[in-house]
Amino acid sequence: MDNECTMEPENIYFRCRKEAAMHNQKLSSREGAAELLGISVSSLQKYELGVTKTVPVDMVVLMADLYNAPELRYLYCKGECPIGRAMNIATEIKSVESVAIRLIKKLSMREVEDIKEKLLDIADDGTIGKEKQEELQDIMERLSSLQQSISELMLLGEKYKGGCRN
Question: In a designed cystine with 75, which of 4, 29, 91, 101 is the match (CB 3.0 to 4.6 A)?
Fold first, then answer.
Protein backbone atom coordinates (compact mmCIF):
# COMPACT_ATOMS: atom_id res chain seq x y z
CA MET A 1 0.00 0.00 0.00
CA ASP A 2 1.26 3.50 -0.81
CA ASN A 3 2.47 5.44 2.17
CA GLU A 4 2.42 8.81 0.44
CA CYS A 5 2.39 10.75 3.69
CA THR A 6 6.13 10.07 3.90
CA MET A 7 6.70 12.09 0.72
CA GLU A 8 8.82 15.17 0.89
CA PRO A 9 6.51 17.89 -0.41
CA GLU A 10 9.43 19.56 -2.17
CA ASN A 11 10.32 16.53 -4.31
CA ILE A 12 9.75 17.58 -7.91
CA TYR A 13 8.99 14.06 -9.15
CA PHE A 14 6.29 13.60 -6.52
CA ARG A 15 4.79 17.06 -7.12
CA CYS A 16 4.66 16.58 -10.88
CA ARG A 17 3.02 13.16 -10.54
CA LYS A 18 0.39 14.52 -8.14
CA GLU A 19 -0.35 17.46 -10.44
CA ALA A 20 -0.69 15.07 -13.39
CA ALA A 21 -3.03 12.88 -11.33
CA MET A 22 -5.64 15.63 -11.61
CA HIS A 23 -5.88 14.70 -15.30
CA ASN A 24 -5.05 10.98 -15.13
CA GLN A 25 -6.43 9.05 -12.17
CA LYS A 26 -3.93 6.22 -12.68
CA LEU A 27 -1.14 8.59 -11.60
CA SER A 28 -2.72 9.18 -8.20
CA SER A 29 -0.95 6.10 -6.84
CA ARG A 30 2.65 4.99 -7.10
CA GLU A 31 1.44 1.61 -8.32
CA GLY A 32 -0.43 3.13 -11.25
CA ALA A 33 2.38 5.51 -12.15
CA ALA A 34 5.03 2.79 -11.88
CA GLU A 35 2.99 0.57 -14.20
CA LEU A 36 2.69 3.34 -16.80
CA LEU A 37 6.41 4.11 -16.50
CA GLY A 38 7.37 0.43 -16.73
CA ILE A 39 9.31 0.44 -13.45
CA SER A 40 8.89 -1.05 -10.00
CA VAL A 41 6.95 0.76 -7.32
CA SER A 42 10.09 0.73 -5.15
CA SER A 43 12.10 2.50 -7.88
CA LEU A 44 9.48 5.23 -8.18
CA GLN A 45 9.35 5.52 -4.40
CA LYS A 46 13.13 6.02 -4.30
CA TYR A 47 12.91 8.76 -6.94
CA GLU A 48 10.10 10.51 -5.10
CA LEU A 49 11.78 10.27 -1.70
CA GLY A 50 15.10 11.47 -3.06
CA VAL A 51 16.82 8.21 -2.10
CA THR A 52 18.11 7.93 -5.67
CA LYS A 53 20.25 11.03 -6.01
CA THR A 54 20.32 11.02 -9.82
CA VAL A 55 17.29 9.68 -11.63
CA PRO A 56 18.31 8.06 -14.94
CA VAL A 57 17.87 10.45 -17.84
CA ASP A 58 15.60 8.09 -19.78
CA MET A 59 13.31 7.92 -16.74
CA VAL A 60 13.25 11.71 -16.45
CA VAL A 61 12.17 11.92 -20.10
CA LEU A 62 9.42 9.32 -19.55
CA MET A 63 8.14 11.08 -16.44
CA ALA A 64 8.25 14.48 -18.14
CA ASP A 65 6.18 13.14 -21.03
CA LEU A 66 3.73 11.10 -18.95
CA TYR A 67 3.19 13.86 -16.37
CA ASN A 68 3.21 16.68 -18.97
CA ALA A 69 5.99 18.21 -16.90
CA PRO A 70 8.69 19.59 -19.21
CA GLU A 71 10.24 21.26 -16.18
CA LEU A 72 11.59 17.83 -15.21
CA ARG A 73 13.76 17.78 -18.35
CA TYR A 74 14.89 21.36 -17.88
CA LEU A 75 15.70 20.74 -14.21
CA TYR A 76 17.66 17.60 -15.08
CA CYS A 77 19.69 19.48 -17.70
CA LYS A 78 20.37 22.38 -15.33
CA GLY A 79 21.21 20.20 -12.35
CA GLU A 80 22.83 17.04 -13.68
CA CYS A 81 24.40 17.83 -17.04
CA PRO A 82 27.75 19.66 -16.88
CA ILE A 83 26.88 21.54 -20.06
CA GLY A 84 23.37 22.40 -18.88
CA ARG A 85 24.68 23.75 -15.57
CA ALA A 86 26.40 26.55 -17.45
CA MET A 87 23.30 27.45 -19.46
CA ASN A 88 20.75 30.05 -18.51
CA ILE A 89 17.58 27.98 -18.65
CA ALA A 90 14.39 28.09 -16.63
CA THR A 91 13.66 25.16 -14.34
CA GLU A 92 10.23 25.96 -12.98
CA ILE A 93 6.85 26.90 -14.38
CA LYS A 94 5.90 30.46 -13.53
CA SER A 95 2.64 32.29 -14.13
CA VAL A 96 2.00 33.54 -17.62
CA GLU A 97 1.49 37.03 -16.21
CA SER A 98 4.87 37.25 -14.52
CA VAL A 99 6.70 35.73 -17.49
CA ALA A 100 4.99 38.04 -20.00
CA ILE A 101 5.56 41.19 -17.97
CA ARG A 102 9.27 40.49 -17.42
CA LEU A 103 9.81 39.59 -21.07
CA ILE A 104 7.96 42.63 -22.40
CA LYS A 105 9.94 44.93 -20.09
CA LYS A 106 13.20 43.44 -21.33
CA LEU A 107 12.08 43.81 -24.93
CA SER A 108 11.20 47.49 -24.64
CA MET A 109 12.24 49.56 -27.65
CA ARG A 110 14.47 51.69 -25.42
CA GLU A 111 16.28 48.62 -24.09
CA VAL A 112 16.70 47.06 -27.53
CA GLU A 113 17.90 50.33 -29.07
CA ASP A 114 20.42 50.83 -26.26
CA ILE A 115 21.86 47.35 -26.82
CA LYS A 116 21.98 47.92 -30.58
CA GLU A 117 23.80 51.25 -30.17
CA LYS A 118 26.36 49.79 -27.76
CA LEU A 119 26.93 46.83 -30.05
CA LEU A 120 27.42 49.10 -33.05
CA ASP A 121 29.93 51.19 -31.06
CA ILE A 122 31.84 48.05 -30.11
CA ALA A 123 31.89 46.72 -33.67
CA ASP A 124 32.64 50.09 -35.30
CA ASP A 125 36.43 49.71 -35.67
CA GLY A 126 36.71 45.94 -35.39
CA THR A 127 38.69 45.95 -32.13
CA ILE A 128 37.63 45.34 -28.57
CA GLY A 129 39.72 47.38 -26.16
CA LYS A 130 39.33 47.70 -22.38
CA GLU A 131 36.42 50.17 -22.54
CA LYS A 132 34.63 48.10 -25.17
CA GLN A 133 35.13 44.94 -23.11
CA GLU A 134 33.14 46.53 -20.27
CA GLU A 135 30.37 47.53 -22.69
CA LEU A 136 30.34 44.03 -24.15
CA GLN A 137 30.09 42.56 -20.65
CA ASP A 138 27.09 44.83 -19.95
CA ILE A 139 25.41 43.67 -23.18
CA MET A 140 26.07 40.02 -22.29
CA GLU A 141 24.50 40.46 -18.84
CA ARG A 142 21.42 42.12 -20.31
CA LEU A 143 21.07 39.42 -22.96
CA SER A 144 21.50 36.72 -20.32
CA SER A 145 18.58 38.19 -18.39
CA LEU A 146 16.56 38.24 -21.61
CA GLN A 147 17.59 34.64 -22.31
CA GLN A 148 16.24 33.60 -18.89
CA SER A 149 12.89 35.24 -19.60
CA ILE A 150 12.70 33.62 -23.04
CA SER A 151 13.49 30.25 -21.46
CA GLU A 152 10.67 30.74 -18.93
CA LEU A 153 8.25 31.47 -21.77
CA MET A 154 9.45 28.47 -23.78
CA LEU A 155 8.98 26.19 -20.76
CA LEU A 156 5.51 27.59 -20.12
CA GLY A 157 4.60 27.18 -23.79
CA GLU A 158 5.83 23.59 -23.81
CA LYS A 159 3.77 22.80 -20.71
CA TYR A 160 0.55 24.06 -22.28
CA LYS A 161 1.04 23.26 -25.98
CA GLY A 162 -1.10 20.12 -25.74
CA GLY A 163 -4.10 22.01 -24.47
CA CYS A 164 -5.08 24.37 -21.71
CA ARG A 165 -4.71 23.13 -18.17
CA ASN A 166 -5.58 24.97 -14.99
Answer: 91
Residues 6+ apart with CB under 8 A from 98: none
Range 135-148 average pLDDT: 93
What span, in angstroms and rounded, lies between the C-alpha atoms of 5 and 41?
16
- CA 85 to the chain's CA centroid: 12
Q: Give pLDDT, residue 130.
A: 86
99-138 pLDDT per residue, tens = 999 999 999 999 999 999 999 999 988 888 888 999 999 9
**What SS3 class is residue 129?**
coil
Q: How many CB atoms lie within 10 A of CB 156?
A: 20
Give the span between the Cα atoms of 133 and 108, in whole angstroms. Answer: 24
Domains by residue range for the chain, with CATH = 4-85 (1.10.260.40), 96-160 (no CATH)
Q: What is the pTM of this model?
A: 0.74
Report the greatest alpha carbon distance in the chain. 71
**Cα gap 140→129, rounded to integer Å:** 16
